[in-house]
Structures are given as C-alpha cells and as structure tokens.
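Journal club prep — side note

Before the paper discussion, L.F. wants everyone to see what a predicted structure for a comparable chain looks like in token form. Sequence:
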Amino acid sequence: MSYRVGKAALSLQKTERVARTEYNDNWEIVRHYTGKDPREHPEAEREFNHAVHLDFLWRTNDGPVAWEECGRVTDMGHATYMEDGSDRRDAAASPFASVDDVLAFNAVEEYGLPDFDGLVAYYEDWYRREQAANDQVVPGGYYRTLISGAIAAFGWEMLLLAAGEEPERFGEEVLGSFFELSLHHVRAWAETSIEFFMCHDDMVWTQGPFIRPDVYRSYVFPRYRELWRPLKQAGKRVLYTTDGTFDMFLDELMEAGADGFCFEPTNDLDKLVKKCGKTHALIGGMDCRTLTFGAKEDVERELRRTLEVTRECPGFMLALGNHLPANIPLENAVHYFALVEELGGR
C-alpha cells in the first residue's frame, strides 16, 4: 500500500490519505516503534518506516567509485548531530591553496567517467535491490551535482572566493565540468527502470543564494534543463532537493523541468502551493524546530495549518523538511506521528 500511495502522490494523483516521508536521524524514535537499536539491527529502519506508514524513501547514489578514491576533495569536518556523536569529524586542510587552483580544476579529468554500460548495470542492480527490500517508493538519484559537487571538491571558502572573484570563468569552466560529470551519470540513470529521480544540489543556504543570482541563471538553471532532458525523455519524473531557501528561483526550476520539490521550512509554503501545488509534487511542510522546541499544542497547530494549506495539492507529501534530529523529545515525535494518523485523511 505504501508504494501505491507514494507513486500516486508523486504522479499527482489524489490519495485516500496524505502521503508521507521522513528523513530520520533520531534513533530513540526508532527504538520506540520497533524495540530495536538501528546500530545493531539493520532491519530496524525498515520496520520504523512501515510502523509510521511512510510512502517514499529519499535516496541518491553517485556510482560505484567515490571521488575520494580517485581525486581531490575537501573535508570540511562535521559537527555532532547524531545521538552518540559518531558523525563528528575535524576539518582537514584543503588541497586547494588558491583561487587559481579552483579555476584550473576539471571534474571530469579529476574523477573520470566510469564505463557507461557498466554504470547502467550498477545503477539498475542497486535500484532493483533497494526497491525489492522496501515497501515504499525508492527513487534513483544523484547527490554531488553542480554546486554540491563544487562544495565537496573545494569546500566553502575556496568555492566562494572563486565564484566571487571570477564568476564567469567559474560558471562556464568549473561548473561546466561538474555538469559533464553529472550528465554522464544521469544518462546512465535514464537507462534504468526507475520511475522517479532525485536530483540533489545544495545551491542555496538558509538566507537564499550565496552566489550572484545571475550566475545561477546563466550557468546553473540552463544546465539543469539539459541534465534532466534524458530522464524526461525516458519517462522519469524529476524531483529536486536543495538545502536552504530556493523559492525565489521557483520559476526557473519549473521551467528547467523539475516535476517536484523536496523543500525545507525556510521556504514559503503558501508561495509553493500557489505557484505549483496543482502541477508539481511538494515534499515537506513541517519544521523540526517546532517538534524540538515547541509544546504538543504547537506541533498540532503547525500540522493542521500545513494540511489545510496543501489540501488541494494532489502531489503533496508530508515530511519534516529539515530532518528528525536526535534532540527531538520522544513525546513530541510520538504525538506528531499519532496526529498524522488522526488528521491525515483526504
């Protein structure tokens, strides 16, 4: 049933209940619903997804060989986010010492293009195994696209310096090389039997664009159109994810061909619904800060408003758009999931 509901919603077909997904990093919640610690029981995540009636799983796969194995990347470190702090890393020195190093970079030369037929076979096998193991819709997808690829390679400081000092060369040459690399993988994904494709690219942050808007319009959005063309020609629906606030670029993303958006709550929900709620899938709506710092009444108030605003959106899929972090109080999370069951009918 979850697969049917998820596919229907992502295809803009009305469902008997609101479709759902979550991006859960809270192990306490999993233990509550399954009695199992996901660190010791890999099946616990699947059991949790089933227990709270999720219909879609956010997935991407960038291929069989990690960039770290064949070229330079920048490890910016990671703050403590998970319950046990296992995700904490100190930053390492960047392999890019100057703007000139960044502007001379070519992603295709650095990381290489895997054999195309082998790449298709790898993605098809991964997708079939993932879909067979889960009751929910599993998409194909690519994570390190244009801007996210540049972040991974250069780190924030060198990325911002290069894009600020020489935006045209950075956009044309450097982002152009990430586009060529991404396109090779996207073409392979288009040859598989996936129905939905998740394109991830963190091109903005909470306050909006961090590069001049004309750079996006000249070097990012036109390339999205070309990047998604093989997928759309193959009948796949393209879902787009970026961290941060992107709603000022909604028209450009729609024109480029996105069929749906995974969005964080810093975006204007009313604007999204008004502009594309009848024509595009919308995945999000709730804010983890409400569950983390609010009372149960706040959670209910936000959920009721979200469901009311999106009531006429056939492709709406409810989620906390900024994850379920480890510090959400368990009682608020349980209350939220119970309310979704109670109020989520169509």
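L.F.'s comment for the group: Residues 63 and 119 are 7 Å apart (CA to CA). Keep this in mind when we get to the figures.
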